[in-house]
Amino acid sequence: MRIARFSMGGEVGFGVLESDELVVIDTHPFGELTYTGARLPLAGVRLLAPIIPSKVVAIGKNYADHAKEMGGEAPTTPLIFIKPSTSIIGPRDAIQRPASVTQLDYEGELAVVIGRLARDVPADRALDVVLGYTCANDATAREQQRADVQFTRAKSYDTFCPLGPWIETALDPSDVGVTTHLNGEVRQDGRTSELVHSVRDVIAFVSGVMTLLPGDVILTGTPAGVGPMVAGDEVAVTIEGIGTLSNTVVDRG
Fold first, then answer.
1. pLDDT tops 90 at residue 211
2. d(CA 115, CA 46)
3. Contact assessment for residue 60 and residue 79, using Cβ atoms and an 8 Å cutoff
């Protein structure tokens, strides 16, 4: 099942994608779904970020090749940092580079959307708390990350967390392709089977640190091949079994 969040005529709602239509959900996508009976053509709505979470928890250096390209080794335990909900944008929204950012990098990632309250979840039950999965771009002010050592400033600007195009609930996250195209050229090409810490282990680790609420998002890490994007570029993150998240880059006025 693919669950999308959309805007139409000033109204925001959720719907289940069926072919080229959205079957509108009565309320939120958590728990048993109820429907309004309305069906909307996908072409007639604007897709939004599929969820606005209380927090986005990201995992750093979770592919060994990416850790190496960043000049280090993959950590033995998951390295976590948080992006604010104000950084989230949806499909086709613009990633805005502030004047203070010299190098703005793309980082394509598989994102996990939590479906229910989760605390101290064991790894063998971790997928039970998942609503589904979506595509993410962990946009990063790279020179600020290097200067600050910790990641908060570099990862937290408005528009630095594109999510979408929808939430796929029927996905096995253990081995799916994660590909990033910049202006049509492949820049990242990895698989989640290469994760240093698996999706199950990441959920267990994070939920042992903080309570996860329905709608919270975990970014699972990015493969090697990260690099800069500039105004006028189009970056597209494709995840096998989900779809493609595309965004353009602009300079913030």
1. yes
2. 24
3. yes
Say which DSSP state 119 is in: S
CB-side exposure of 228: number of CA atoms within 13 Å?
A: 9
Question: What are the two backbone dihedrals, phi and then psi, of residue 105, each rounded to the nearest 5 degrees?
Answer: -105, 150
Q: CB–CB of 27/41 below 8 Å?
A: no
- Is pTM beyond 0.85? Reply is yes
* Separation of alpha carbons 167 and 26, rounded Å: 17
With beta carbons less than 8 A apart as the criterion, state whether 155 and 145 touch.
Answer: yes
**Cβ(14)–Cβ(3) under 8 Å?**
yes
Q: Which two tokens stand for residue 170?
A: 């029927």
Cα–Cα distance measured from residue 35 to residue 26, given in angstroms and rounded to the nearest whole number:
5
Q: Is there a cis peptide before residue 173, judged by omega within 30 degrees of 0?
A: no
Distance CA 47, CA 126 (A): 29
The per-residue pLDDT of the chain, averaged, comes to: 96
| Residue 108 amino acid letter | G
3-state secondary structure 77-101: CCEEEEECHHHEECCCCEEEECCCC
Per residue in 59-76, pLDDT (tens digit) is 999 987 887 777 677 789
pLDDT at residue 16 is higher than 80: yes
